[in-house]
TrEMBL record, chain A:
Organism: Meinhardsimonia xiamenensis
PROSITE patterns: ABC_TRANSPORTER_2 (PS50893)
GO molecular function, one term: ATP hydrolysis activity
GO cellular component, one term: plasma membrane
Name of this protein: Amino acid/amide ABC transporter ATP-binding protein 1, HAAT family
UniProtKB/TrEMBL annotation, chain B:
Pfam families per UniProt: BPD_transp_2
Superkingdom per UniProt: Bacteria
InterPro entries: ABC_transp_permease, BCAA_transport_permease
Main location: membrane
Taxonomic lineage of the native organism: Bacteria, Pseudomonadati, Pseudomonadota, Alphaproteobacteria, Rhodobacterales
Species annotation: Meinhardsimonia xiamenensis
Intracellular or extracellular location(s): Cell membrane
Name of the protein in question: Branched-chain amino acid transport system permease protein
Keywords linked to the UniProt accession: Amino-acid transport, Cell membrane, Membrane, Transmembrane, Transmembrane helix, Transport
Transmembrane segments: 12-33, 45-65, 85-104, 116-134, 176-196, 217-241, 261-282, 289-314
The keyword Membrane appears for this protein: yes
PANTHER family, per database record: ABC TRANSPORTER PERMEASE PROTEIN (PTHR11795:SF451), BRANCHED-CHAIN AMINO ACID TRANSPORT SYSTEM PERMEASE PROTEIN LIVH (PTHR11795)
KW Membrane (keyword) present: yes
Membrane topology according to the record: Multi-pass membrane protein
Any one biological process term the GO annotation gives: amino acid transport
């Protein structure tokens, strides 16, 4: 395990800093069902952190807790050294935490460009009255935000579809647009809920490359959920393994791969 | 030019002016429907309520005067001052914003994720509540509204057309002003939706709530904003209609005329509401002029609905409504 105070440099030269988010003893219940049970882990600045586990393990619930869609009954979330009060999803987004969804949540009727521009909303400061009266300033702001968006579009190689209504796009491209919208927010923490679900091998490779490039070039901290073990092991610096709402493993991919509990959870245990 | 044709042109122009008012009411429906999926039956009553409040404030009426008099045995009606039109309009707008906030705080916040039919029922309740509330607050008598807009025949058009064709068109000044104001309002609303931060957020909320939340948009803020905008549109519509035919409770029935307008234009399109309103306005006046005499008149009562029915059969999404894109 890494010491949480020091800065480490990975084999490929990326810097991983101190703790960005600390999740402490989270318990989430829906009525009588316990979705997450007393789970703790941390996410460090600059790393790619994966959360894996079989179906129903509580991975998506955990992501929803972090992004404010669910509110845990117990536990604390510390972000950038401060304890976070219970927040609504839009407040979490304004703190600099962007996310994508397992089932894609895009604005289907709007163009790709407009969709990605909504990612900039948290960065737009000019108020309603100012926009009506002081048109120049609003325009300057729009231009500045547009530049960021264009960079993201170039980066994810979706220039050719920028004017297309999202509803017309195939699945794989929609996933990429959703990533673009999250990136446009220039998040301090990027949450990806099964970014490669339902993709073919080629699309998966593309997406893996984008995730690595985002982390590498922008230094974005990424927490992702993924089903595909192979992908996760290649991508991530550290992995949390969940099963039946509990954390059963935490460490580097190699450590996790050799953890007996994890092997049991994935392959099943022989009862004798 | 033959007299019949000139007369038809005049009827068309007057129809356009009437259509502008239909369009204004329909616009209020579209705004709320787009952003929250709520079909706001109370839009017409909001126009009535706005007009009542505007008159009440201008005339210095004491709100709830009947109630106060009944309870305390007093006899108060007016404060005895008059508020200038512009200030009264701003104050009324403030009332509409408070109303927007209250509607969301006390009704729709408790109905999040409910079926559309339930939201619709809630707005029916709201409509009757507001009608009663407006009655209680300002009284039920017909009021004259004079916000200083020009009224009566436009003599310039009358003279020009008389000199050109030997027949003077009768166009009301108020209708011209109403059309200009409506055009400015619509242009401003479209610019707002397309080019401002809040407008983009509004379109985002209209499209997908979950996604909107994830990019940092507060749904409640957007809903209050949209209801305020709809309140503003209602105020303009109510003021125009009130200036034309007095502020009376039949004003809320205009809302029903907005229904065929919406079916024609599409429930989600701002330009659709405008074009739909104009088509209905012109259509019903021309139909009455051309076909009315053959069938005994009074076609204005049903023409709009029949036209809407035809549209429902052949183009259910309306002229400008969003086509549903579905990938299989």
């Amino acid at each position: 395990m890494l010491d949480s105070s020091e800065v480490t440099v990975t084999a490929d030269g990326r810097r991983i800093g101190g703790v960005l988010m600390d999740i402490r003893n989270i318990t989430l219940r829906f009525g009588g069902v316990v979705a997450i049970r007393d789970t703790s882990f941390d996410i460090r600045e600059g790393e790619i952190r994966a959360i894996i586990g079989p179906n129903g393990a509580g991975k998506s619930s955990m992501l929803n807790v972090i992004s404010g869609f669910y509110h845990p009954q117990e536990g604390e979330i510390w972000f950038r050294g401060e304890k976070r009060p219970p927040m609504k999803p839009y407040q979490v987004a304004r703190q600099g935490i962007a996310r994508t969804f397992q089932n894609i949540a895009l604005f289907e009727g709007m163009s790709v460009l407009d969709n990605i521009m909504t990612g900039r909303l948290t960065h737009m400061k000019t108020g309603l009255a100012a926009q009506a009266i002081w048109w120049g300033r609003a325009e300057a702001e729009e231009v500045a935000n547009r530049e960021v968006v264009e960079r993201v579009i170039d980066f994810l190689e979706i220039q050719h579809i920028r004017k297309t209504p999202v509803g017309r796009l195939p699945y794989g491209l929609k996933k990429r647009v959703e990533l673009a919208r999250a990136l446009a927010a220039e998040p301090k923490l990027l949450l990806l809920d099964e970014p490669m679900a339902g993709m073919n091998v080629e699309e998966k490779e593309d997406m893996s490359r984008f995730i690595l490039d985002v982390n590498d070039e922008f230094g974005t901290t990424i927490a992702l959920i993924e089903h595909d073990m192979g992908v996760v092991m290649d991508l991530s610096d550290r992995v949390v393994v969940m099963d039946y709402g509990k954390k059963i493993g935490d460490g580097t991919p190699d450590e996790v791969r050799n953890n007996q509990d994890v092997i049991d959870a994935y392959l099943g245990v022989a009862h004798d | 030019m033959p007299e019949q044709l000139l007369f038809a042109i005049e009827v068309t122009l007057n129809g356009l002016m009437a259509g502008v008012l239909y369009a204004l009411v329909a616009l209020g429906f579209v705004l709320i429907y787009k952003a929250s999926g709520i079909f706001n039956y109370a839009q017409g009553v909001m126009a009535l309520f706005a007009a009542l409040t505007l008159v009440g404030i201008m005339e210095g009426q004491v709100p709830f005067a009947h109630l106060i008099n009944a309870i305390f045995g007093t006899d108060i009606h007016h404060f005895g001052w008059h508020v200038p039109a512009l200030a009264a309009i701003l104050l009324t707008m403030l009332v509409m914003v408070v109303l927007a906030w209250a509607v969301n705080r006390f009704i729709f916040r408790h109905l999040v994720n409910q079926e559309p039919i339930i939201l619709f029922m809630a707005t029916i309740g709201l409509a009757y509540f507001m009608e009663g509330f407006g009655d209680l607050m300002w009284g039920s008598d017909i009021k004259k509204l004079d916000i200083g807009l020009p009224q009566g025949i436009n003599t310039w058009i009358d003279e020009v057309t008389y000199n050109a064709f030997g027949y003077g068109f009768f166009i009301d000044n108020l209708d011209i002003v109403a059309s200009i104001i409506a055009a400015i309002l619509v242009a401003a609303l479209i610019a707002f939706a397309q080019y401002t931060k809040q407008g983009r957020a509004m379109r985002a909320v209209a499209d997908d709530h979950q996604a909107a939340l994830s990019v940092g948009i507060s749904l409640e803020f957007i809903w209050v904003m949209v209801w305020s905008l709809a309140g503003f549109v209602a105020l303009v519509a109510g003021a125009m209609w009130g200036a034309k035919s007095g502020v009376q409770f039949s004003l809320s029935l205009i809302a029903l005329k907005a229904l065929p307008v919406l079916m024609l234009g599409g429930f989600t399109s701002i330009p659709g509401a405008i074009v739909g309103g104009l088509i209905i306005g012109v259509g019903e006046k021309l139909f009455e002029f051309l076909v009315g005499p053959l069938v005994g008149g009074a076609t204005e009562n049903w023409f709009a609905y029949v036209l809407a029915l035809v549209f429902l059969v052949f183009r259910p999404q309306g002229l400008f409504g969003e086509k549903i894109i579905e990938r299989v």
